[in-house]
């Protein structure tokens, strides 16, 4: 693959152009507050699917990427944490590459990550300050990263995928790794590692599965991830474990590079929410039951952004409120590469309607000159909030303090 094609496919940081006209709700004023302990670094904040717990990674500030995985409770009426500093249950010591993400099965929420020795750790919360920790029998391997379990609330079944580097732990851009591999386990057979696909890593930048980042569909054991097509575009592939003999299948085929697609099901339709072409554009792709391919039916571009060159729409997180669909996402000022843009440049957190007419959207974060990343919606009993992490502009993500913010939204009663 040529460097020119990969540059186009992997985060070219182009200046966004608006594809449709949108309006802001004039009655909504962005308001967010810093929450938690201001001296603590809150990274990789995630909520369990039942809304009872927050799972997060307390990252040290020594540049090693080491830290601690915790969970705590959250009040569905106020979105206040239990306890307030979020240090409810100390689960295990981990790294920024092995930190945990939550899943769900018929027995309730759980989370899975990797400890500093390379063991996979399964944790079942039993309360805001308690949990049951299990060391899985999966063979140890520190070259794994990005652990995500399934969200299958009606099944006793569960799966976990990760990306394996060829040689050394850490970043997906490390030139010592010539390839990366998408692997998974069935939690009922944790010693048996299965391979979905191996991809060559280009001389610079990410492999396609790191650009079109891997995710489970919410509610079914089906994985989506990025793969290069013959024209050099990053398309979405799907590996669907509900099929009798699952094989990877390409499910998009249009001339757009897909960044961090989020797959989910709404009103009986499969939906993908990727960023497009490293611009400040989110695509809404829909697939009807029985179909293979997704079709682009809507685009979302932040209207009224205060950024000079907004770019890299990503981290789309769907929300269902009053039987209508929304997405929260981030954009950042364009710069030379992915890490610089996503974690060191001024950012904004946005909320948009999905598949509604007219389309509306709202900037949720207050206008501050800080990097903002990883919006995480929390649907409470009577209103919706969006949490996000923030860094000082230009700071090193491995040594600075990630502050945690809670933003109001117009969704509520």
Structure write-up:
By secondary structure, this protein is mostly beta strands. Helices cover 4% and strands 48% of the residues. The chain is built from 3 helices and 29 strands. The chain has helices at residues 3-9, 208-211, 338-344; strands spanning 32-35, 42-47, 53-59, 66-74, 81-82, 89-95, 101-105, 108-114, 120-127, 130-135, 144-149, 159-165, 179-186, 194-200, 215-216, 222-228, 234-240, 249-250, 258-266, 269-276, 282-287, 295-300, 310-321, 324-333, 347-354, 361-363, 370-379, 383-392, 403-412. Strands 2, 3, 4, 5 and 6 form a 5-stranded antiparallel sheet that branches. It has a 4-stranded antiparallel sheet with strand order 1-29-28-27. A hairpin with a 3-residue loop joins β27 (370-379) and β28 (383-392). The N and C termini lie far apart (52 Å). 49% of the residues are buried.
Based on Cα principal axes, name the global outline.
Answer: globular
Distance between the termini: 52 Å
Q: pLDDT average, as an integer?
A: 93
Radius of gyration (CA) equals 20 Å
Number of strands: 29
Estimated helix fraction: under 10%
């Amino acid at each position: 693959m040529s460097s020119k094609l990969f540059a186009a496919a992997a985060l070219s940081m182009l200046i966004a152009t608006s594809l449709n006209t949108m309006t802001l709700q004039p009655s909504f004023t962005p308001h967010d507050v810093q929450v938690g302990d201001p001296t603590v670094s809150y990274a990789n904040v995630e909520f369990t699917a039942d809304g009872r717990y927050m799972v997060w990674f307390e990252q040290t500030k020594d540049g090693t990427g080491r830290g601690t995985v915790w969970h705590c409770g959250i009040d569905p009426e106020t979105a206040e944490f239990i306890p307030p500093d979020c240090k409810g249950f100390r689960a295990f010591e981990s790294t920024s590459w092995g930190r945990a993400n939550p899943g769900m099965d018929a027995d309730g929420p759980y989370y899975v990550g990797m400890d500093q020795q390379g063991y996979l750790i399964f944790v079942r919360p039993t309360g805001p300050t308690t949990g049951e920790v299990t060391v899985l029998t999966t063979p140890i391997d520190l070259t794994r990263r990005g652990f995500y379990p399934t969200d299958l609330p009606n099944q006793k079944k569960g799966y976990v995928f990760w990306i394996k580097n060829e040689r050394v732990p850490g970043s997906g851009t490390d030139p010592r790794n010539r390839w990366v591999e998408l692997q998974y386990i069935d939690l009922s057979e944790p010693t048996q590692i299965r391979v979905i696909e191996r991809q060559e890593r280009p001389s610079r930048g990410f492999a396609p599965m790191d650009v079109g980042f891997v995710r489970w569909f919410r509610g079914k054991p089906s994985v989506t991830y990025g793969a290069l097509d013959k024209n050099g575009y990053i398309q979405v592939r799907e590996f669907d474990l509900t099929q009798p003999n699952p094989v990877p299948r390409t499910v998009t085929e249009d001339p757009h590079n897909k960044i961090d697609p989020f797959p989910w099901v709404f009103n009986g339709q499969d939906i993908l929410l990727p960023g497009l072409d490293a611009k400040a554009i989110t695509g809404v792709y829909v697939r009807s039951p029985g179909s293979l391919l997704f079709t682009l039916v809507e685009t979302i571009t932040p209207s009224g952004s205060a950024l000079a060159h907004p770019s890299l729409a990503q981290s789309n997180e769907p929300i269902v409120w009053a039987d209508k669909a929304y997405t929260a996402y981030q954009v950042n000022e364009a710069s030379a590469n992915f890490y610089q843009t996503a974690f060191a440049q001024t950012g904004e957190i946005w909320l948009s309607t999905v598949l509604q007419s007219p389309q509306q959207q709202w900037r949720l974060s207050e206008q501050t000159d800080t990097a903002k990343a990883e919006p995480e919606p929390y649907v409470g009993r009577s209103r919706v909030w969006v949490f996000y992490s923030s860094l000082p502009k230009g700071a090193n993500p491995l040594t600075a303090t990630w502050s945690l913010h809670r933003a109001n939204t117009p969704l509520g009663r």
